[in-house]
UniProtKB/TrEMBL annotation:
Belongs to the complex I subunit 6 family. It catalyses: a quinone + NADH + 5 H(+)(in) = a quinol + NAD(+) + 4 H(+)(out). It is found in: Cell membrane. Gene3D superfamilies: NADH-ubiquinone/plastoquinone oxidoreductase chain 6, subunit NuoJ. It comes from Anoxybacillus andreesenii. Its main location: membrane. NCBIfam families: PRK06638.2-3. This is NADH-quinone oxidoreductase subunit J.
């Protein structure tokens, strides 16, 4: 088996994405978790570039690694959280986790089993940014704008909740 540069780049990006996900789940500080999430988002964007999906890669960086991460950091900064450690789950939680992992592994197996390694010619990579832009700003303009409104409402909700907590603590003193 020969390793091409593309295969090596994919392996590095995939391992980086998995490491970021594992770190996200295992770190204790929320800000460190957000940094691990950014690492995962950026490596996934690299994989999108390798798939000739430049628009999706840029959106991945702008929306996920940028906007969503900033909103998460705002939520962290604006809300009060106490450092408490949760008790580890019991047997039921472990069984449900095992079932979830087995279900995911089965779905991946079915996906790989049905994979067609000799795809037909596709024109999706030709002018894909133009094709996505035309579809996004003609056919899907309403869901696109509603997404921005939902993100704005989430940010305003975090601010309102943080202000209510501050007012309650000010009244207690």
């Amino acid at each position: 088996m020969t390793f091409s540069g593309e295969l090596l780049a994919f392996i590095i990006l995939a391992i980086t994405a998995v490491i970021g996900g594992v770190l996200l789940l295992n770190l204790n500080k929320v800000v460190h978790m957000v940094v691990a999430l950014i690492l995962t988002f950026v490596s996934i964007a690299g994989i999108f570039v390798m798939l000739s999906a430049e628009f999706v890669a840029v959106v991945q960086i702008l929306i996920y690694a940028g906007s969503i991460t900033i909103i998460m950091l705002f939520g962290i900064m604006l809300t009060r959280h106490r450092e408490t450690t949760e008790a580890k789950g019991g047997g039921l939680r472990k069984i449900l986790l095992l079932l979830g992992v087995l279900g995911f592994a089965f779905a991946v197996y079915i996906g790989i089993y049905n994979l067609d390694l000799n795809p037909q010619e596709s024109t999706l990579h030709v002018n894909n940014v133009e094709q996505i832009g035309m579809a996004l700003y003609t056919k899907y303009i309403i869901p696109f704008e509603l997404t921005s409104v939902v993100l704005l409402v989430a940010l305003i909700g975090a601010i309102v909740l943080a202000k209510k907590d501050d007012e309650k603590e000010a009244n207690k003193e």
